[in-house]
Here is the input.
Amino acid sequence: MVAKKSIFEKLKLVEKIDGENETELNEEAASIEESNQQDENEKNEDHIENSNNFNVKATNTLVNDNKKVGNTYMDRNIDINKVLSIEEIYGKFSLENDSTKTVFVIDEFFKALPGNLPREVRKQSVINIIKASGKDIDLILRDGESRANILNNHLKEFSKKTEDSVTGYQMQIQQLMKEIEQLKNRINEREQLRLEQKSIIEFEMQRIDCIMQSVE
Here is the structure.
């Protein structure tokens, strides 16, 4: 049976992950941690400034993407009579299926790294691996943002249509209850008329009976 390829092999970053490669990853991660510690003070101000600039740019981009996703989504007809799987929801928008090009590649990289490494070291290692593979981490993060927006919009629209449907049923129930009440009133009216008619006829029958008895 052919062994399952690791995420590193899929991206052709390594030929095979074995004990030697894992040792190299540990050594590289330790080196990254030491290097990060040395450069942290020097790059702190530049990092903050660059991060702020990036956040402004990224926010503007995501707003536009959200608007586009939202407009596309609102044109879709949601069937509230069945529950869709996550894959079916994604499928309605023709999202990227290759996991190495989506936000999920980040999780795969984290799982592929040794679990005993510090969180910050693993984080920086994943970022470096993504860059080494020639992928744009900003696009990967926007993929995650788009998926989150699509799922959130689907839930909102599904909930809204469900609430509208429930409201419609409740209105029908109220209308039916009103009609039932009207029918009950009609039944009472008919019963009252029947009693009145019975009383009139019985009175007349008694009068006739008395007249007939008077000559017998």
Notes: DSSP finds six helices and no strands in the chain.
